[in-house]
Amino acid sequence: MVAEANKMCTHTVVSIYLNPAQFAKDEDLATYPKNLQHDLEALSQFQIDAIFLPIDSEMYPRGYSTYMQETKLSTVLEGRSRPLFFQGVATVVAKFFNIVRPTHAFFGEKDAQQLLVVKKVVKDMAYPIDIISCPIIRHNNGLAMSSRNSYLSKLEQKAASIIYRSLQDGKNLIISGERNAQTIRDQITQTIMQENLLRIDYVSVTDAETLVEMSGNISNNILVSTAVFLGKTRLIDNFSYSASSNK
Amino acid sequence: MVAEANKMCTHTVVSIYLNPAQFAKDEDLATYPKNLQHDLEALSQFQIDAIFLPIDSEMYPRGYSTYMQETKLSTVLEGRSRPLFFQGVATVVAKFFNIVRPTHAFFGEKDAQQLLVVKKVVKDMAYPIDIISCPIIRHNNGLAMSSRNSYLSKLEQKAASIIYRSLQDGKNLIISGERNAQTIRDQITQTIMQENLLRIDYVSVTDAETLVEMSGNISNNILVSTAVFLGKTRLIDNFSYSASSNK
Fold this sequence. Notes:
The structure is a homodimer. Chain A is of the alpha/beta class. Chain A has two domains: 2-134, HUPs (Rossmann fold, 3-Layer(aba) Sandwich); 147-242, 2-Layer Sandwich (Pantoate--beta-alanine Ligase, Chain: A,domain 2), CATH 3.30.1300.10. In chain A, 35% of the residues lie in helices and 21% in strands. The first copy, chain A, has helices spanning 2-8, 36-43, 56-59, 78-81, 85-100, 112-124, 154-175, 181-193, and strands at residues 13-15, 50-52, 66-70, 104-108, 130-134, 198-207, 221-230, 233-242. In chain A, the strands form three sheets. In chain A, strands 6-7-8 form a three-stranded antiparallel β-sheet, covered by helices on one side. Chain A is globular, with a radius of gyration of 19 Å. In chain A, 32% of the residues are buried. Chain A binds chain B through residues 63-73, 90-91, 94-95, 98-99, 120-121, 124-128, and chain B through 63-73, 90-91, 94-95, 98-99, 120-121, 124-128.
């Protein structure tokens, strides 16, 4: 994301903030991996004009009471499993936009639904900002990079690699001509279930824009996504597929 | 408000928009008085750089799904009688801010709660905008100016003048030393009830910042407000009182 910003923009501001508003009480806010020193070192190879490092009492002072809410895309998939998540995301992103006033903002495709929600907020609320999506970056075994991967033991890391393999299986099925959404979901589900350590939260094939779950044959542009538990760790991954471009 | 903007700012943008998002289904959106020609004539005495006249399909296109919500101040008084009102206000104001990007924004004190909610949204969401409050302007008989006054017959206009008189009675009571909130509410209620055409929605004495209804003695800074029905027309009025400054 930062490399992309350096390419597209004259100035780059990086925000590093673990946003409490997007965690429910029973979620992993308290243990969420953070390592500022490591982040700063990783950033040292880029041109950074400013790092925005707010603290909670600045973002959500006592008596804070204002929230941004996207009410359609936010209700499914991650929103169903994590009811507060997208309200927290939309609120903090809008507040960042008001403070930083960027021309472009960069989001990762691993959080595909978050990307869609942010784009919808920007469009609906008329923020003069281009949202740029950045491809998922993966470890050698295929596991999508995520802060939460550091929760995983070596054994779990190996088990987690099947998530990406399951999505590849689903994609290959589509490329080979399969069009039935349930058959695609079943294939992915079967592959994941080969690994006993994984517990499926959802396997989803939706319209890529509306996030409406597909029944019958898939539409032109789809988002195929999954969320799985590995012990207490919840991991997500996805791919988008455009029938017209065949990729 | 425009005169004040002309005094404080190098450029003035006026928005004229009847915002459907702040009306409930059973409210008066369809009949709300609007007269663009009259508005433009009234504006001709001021320096205006631009008039922002959006249409509904630009503000709320098909599939619109994003809302700003203030969750504390919005729940009482007008928010209790009009559950969608402040979500509609906060959303449209935030969207205007994103489009117009003003340095200052001017709001009337007649909608005292709206003013507080907008200030809270600006503070919580870190909009770099100064909110300037502008005093209520009244007709000769004391009635606070409002678009909805045009709903009133001559007879009703006369009856409506008692709203301001009731607030003056309340204020005089405070100035004379009365500190009990209920006694102040009772005085205002009694005055309004002298006019049979009026039906009280609420008479309120709250803390001027939190909008918490006062019991016992009043605090230093209070908002005294009322909403009354005159037939189908709903009218509001208010005054703020600061015990320390005695006004």
